[in-house]
Amino acid sequence: EVLLTPTKIYSRLLLPILRSGAIKAYAHITGGGLLENIPRVLPQQLAVELDASRWSIPAVFSWLHKEGCLSDEEMTRTFNCGLGAVLVVAPPDAQRVLRQLQVHDEAWIVGSLAHKQPGGSAVVVRNLKQSLLNASAGGQLEARNSERHENSITPRKRTRVGVLISGTGTNLQALIEQAKCSSSSAEIVVVISNRPGVQGLKRASLAGIQTRVVDHKLYGSPAEFDGTIDRVLEEFGVELVCLAGFMRILTGTFVKKWTGKLLNIHPSLLPSFKGVNAQKQALQAGVRVTGCTVHFVASFKH
């Protein structure tokens, strides 16, 4: 219901103040959030510094930040984070304008202008993460607990996941980013590639995840190859196996052992656009609806 509430139209409230001549610039914060809307009303040499602790952030933004695993930049580039409109006012006029606004709606003095540094951002938002935490229900208590008792809180048990790859690891990267979220139920403990030197191994290493190479070319049979992968998974205590761009067919023995614990992900709605470059295939086909597929892998008797 909160997300479906129509945006406020500020023209009636702001017209008398705008006509008074006290407003130097006015930005309505819509799509593009704080980072893209405010610079549109500023001279190129100026930047604005906002302090998120100075205004009230609605709890829905805290929820979006947490459940969407969104970065601070994504939050401020996409949402207004509680600032529906921003007015630029000279310091001597600020308190008077603030009082006029507060008669009709919530308003705050949230920041100041400064000369933009070469190569610097036009908008800097301070204290956003803490303010989003405080906006959540019980956020202040949660913040104190995380600061004072970080080591005493028992973390939620996460499922130990092993990921099998063969190439660049673009699907793997999405899994890594999701696993970083506090709301994730998964922990990637090992990434196994059947090809050495691929980009996916580098992605895993950069994320601090253990990697192993089990080169299929070095094994005399598929059973030997699968058996080696199985031993690596057991070594790391893997509870769930995810095939993310893994380009080998696994034996029935391996699949049977991991039945109910073996997932495959593919960046298209199967059976359309199989194999590599699924997104490119979908674009070239001109489809209007696309997505991804996640399914359990199972073996069947013929």
TrEMBL record:
Signal peptide: none annotated. The keyword Repeat does not apply. It is an enzyme of class 6 (ligase). InterPro entries: Formyl_transf_N, Formyl_transf_N_sf, GART, PurM-like_C_dom, PurM-like_C_sf, PurM_cligase. Residues 160-298 form the Formyl transferase N-terminal domain. Pfam families: AIRS_C, Formyl_trans_N. Keywords: ATP-binding, Ligase, Nucleotide-binding, Purine biosynthesis, Transferase. Residues 2-116 form the PurM-like C-terminal domain. This is phosphoribosylformylglycinamidine cyclo-ligase.
